[in-house]
C-alpha cells in the first residue's frame, strides 16, 4: 500500500527565506509524486509533479522538488518565500500507469506554511 | 484548459434534508471523477471514484446509500448527501481525470462547504 508522510504540520519562515517542506512516501511500484497548494476555502492547485525522467522538477511560483528514490523523499523547496506563499501544501502519491487503483491519489496530512514579514 | 467547477460553493441545510453537489469538467471530457472529503485542518480523504455510465466505487467506510454518486455524462458528476446530519458538515472537493486518454493527472474543483444545522 502507498502512503505519504509530511514532516511538520506547520512551518513558519520569514519573507525572503528558504522554504523547505518535507515529504516521504512509500510505494511498492515506481510512484508518481505531486505537490498541491490549497488556499483557504479553495480547491487544490497543482504545483508540480514527478512521473519519470529528470528527478528535479520545477513547478509554478518558483517552487521545485527533487525525487530521491534512495531516500524515498520528494521535498518541496523555494529559494525565497513570499507572503503570497502562505497556504496549505499537500504531497501526494499515485501508482500512475501501474494503477489498478485507477491512479488514485494518496495525500499526506498537509503542511501549513506561514510567512512572516 | 482542464477546468473543473463545483456548484454550489457553499450550502447550509437543515438536518434530515438532502443536498446535491455538482462537479463539472468545463473544457474536457472526464471518464473518471473523484470525490473527496476534507475536515478542518486535515487532509483530503477519498470517498469514491465515479466512472461515467457505471456505478461508483466507494472507499471502505463510506456509506454508499448516504452519499449517492451519479456520473451521468462525461462532464458531470453529482454527489447527493441524503438525510444530512451535522456530522456530515465538511468541505467536499471533486476532481476529474483527463483530458487525455490514459491520463493520470487529476484536476480539482474549488470545493463545496456543507454546513448541516
- The gyration radius over C-alpha positions of chain A equals 14 Å
Distance between the termini of chain A: 41 Å
Question: Distance between the terminal alpha carbons of chain B, to the nearest Å?
Answer: 37 Å
Q: Give the mean pLDDT of chain B.
A: 90
Structural class of chain A: mainly beta
Most extensive interface: pair and counts? A-B, 24 and 25 residues
**Binned strand content of chain B:** over 45%
Number of helices of chain A: 0
**How many strands appear in the DSSP assignment of chain A?**
11
Computed structural class of chain B: mainly beta
- Total helix count of chain B? 0
The biggest beta sheet of chain A is recorded as:
6 strands, mixed
Structural features, described:
The complex is a heterodimer of chains A (117) and B (117). Chain A contains no helices and eleven strands. In chain A, the strands form two sheets. In chain A, strands 2, 4, 5, 9, 10 and 11 form a six-stranded mixed β-sheet that branches. In chain A, strands 1-3-8-7-6 form a five-stranded antiparallel β-sheet, with no helix packed on it. By secondary structure, chain A is mainly β. With 117 residues, chain B is mostly beta strands. Chain B has no helices and eleven strands. In chain B, strands 2, 4, 5, 6, 9, 10 and 11 form a seven-stranded mixed β-sheet that branches. At the A-B interface, strand 5 of A face strand 5, strand 9 and strand 10 of B.
Could you list some keywords that capture this structure?
heterodimer; A: 117 residues; mainly beta; 6-stranded mixed β-sheet; 11 strands; 53% strand; globular; B: 117 residues; 7-stranded mixed β-sheet; 4-stranded antiparallel β-sheet
Sequence-ordered SSE layout with sheet pairings:
The complex is a heterodimer of chains A (117) and B (117).
Chain A: E1 3-7, E2 10-14, E3 19-26, E4 32-38, E5 44-50, E6 56-58, E7 64-68, E8 73-78, E9 87-94, E10 106-107, E11 111-116
Parallel strand pairs in A: 2-11
Antiparallel strand pairs in A: 1-3, 3-8, 4-5, 4-9, 6-7, 7-8, 9-10, 9-11
Chain B: E1 4-7, E2 10-13, E3 19-25, E4 32-38, E5 44-51, E6 57-58, E7 67-73, E8 76-81, E9 90-97, E10 106-108, E11 112-116
Parallel strand pairs in B: 2-11
Antiparallel strand pairs in B: 1-3, 3-8, 4-5, 4-9, 5-6, 7-8, 9-10, 9-11
Amino acid at each position: 500500500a502507498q502512503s505519504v508522510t509530511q514532516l511538520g504540520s506547520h512551518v513558519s519562515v520569514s519573507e525572503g527565506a528558504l522554504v523547505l517542506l518535507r515529504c516521504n512516501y512509500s510505494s511498492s511500484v515506481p510512484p508518481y509524486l505531486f505537490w498541491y497548494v490549497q488556499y483557504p476555502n479553495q480547491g487544490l492547485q497543482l504545483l508540480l509533479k514527478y512521473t519519470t525522467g529528470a528527478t528535479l522538477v520545477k513547478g509554478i511560483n518558483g517552487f521545485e522538488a527533487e525525487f530521491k528514490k534512495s531516500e524515498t523523499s520528494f521535498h518541496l523547496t523555494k529559494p525565497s518565500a513570499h507572503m503570497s506563499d502562505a497556504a496549505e501544501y499537500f504531497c501526494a502519491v499515485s501508482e500512475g500507469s501501474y494503477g489498478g487503483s485507477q491512479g488514485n491519489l494518496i495525500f499526506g496530512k498537509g503542511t501549513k506554511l506561514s510567512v512572516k514579514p | 484548459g482542464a477546468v473543473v467547477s463545483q456548484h454550489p460553493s457553499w450550502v447550509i441545510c437543515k438536518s434530515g434534508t438532502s443536498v446535491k453537489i455538482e462537479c463539472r469538467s468545463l473544457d474536457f471530457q472526464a471518464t473518471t471523477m473523484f470525490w473527496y472529503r476534507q475536515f478542518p485542518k486535515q487532509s483530503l480523504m477519498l470517498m469514491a471514484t465515479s466512472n461515467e455510465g457505471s456505478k461508483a466505487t466507494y472507499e471502505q467506510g463510506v456509506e454508499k446509500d448516504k452519499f449517492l454518486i451519479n456520473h451521468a455524462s462525461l462532464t458531470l458528476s453529482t454527489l447527493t448527501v441524503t438525510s444530512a446530519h451535522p456530522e456530515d458538515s465538511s468541505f467536499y472537493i471533486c476532481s476529474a481525470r483527463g483530458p487525455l486518454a490514459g491520463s493520470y493527472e487529476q484536476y480539482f474543483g474549488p470545493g463545496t462547504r456543507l454546513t448541516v444545522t
